[in-house]
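Input chain follows. Return structure tokens only.
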Amino acid sequence: MQDSIQTTGGVLHPSDIEFINTCICEVFGCRPEDITELQPLQKGLSNSVLSFRFNGGKYVFRYPGLGSEMLIDRGRESIVQKQIEEAGVDTSLVAMSVRYGWRISRFVQTRSFQYHDVNDMVRGILQIRKLHSSKPKVRWEFDIKEKWESIRDMTPADKYGENFADFPEFKEIKERI
């Protein structure tokens, strides 16, 4: 059994790692020893996000962090995920648990979105258009400004906004929005 793993979402203890291995094994029908290179990706604020290898493929496991249930309604997330998959916007999902909040996806090599790069802006807009043209339907309202303000109010200043070192363009983008 692997020792604790430090992630940006917190420390995963051996019991957490055992749970993660159990979930992966149930999805893939494998044994824990078939899972290799379980390691943190160091992305995300409230979740622990790990990559792992299985049967020649690389995957990502999202383990919900403390308080994530206040930010995300996992039932709604699964409905939206199905619609964005059907629209061809994100087809990386392998499995997810609404009850426990974990998710397994195929690993997709990415880089940070560059807000001042015209190519990134065009690709982003094309993805948004692809989603909007698919006309996804849900039975609830989603006010992005209200949600953003709610998350901002719950997040420590050093992890969000002008005080967050990883997002130096925050103030400029906020003013443009």
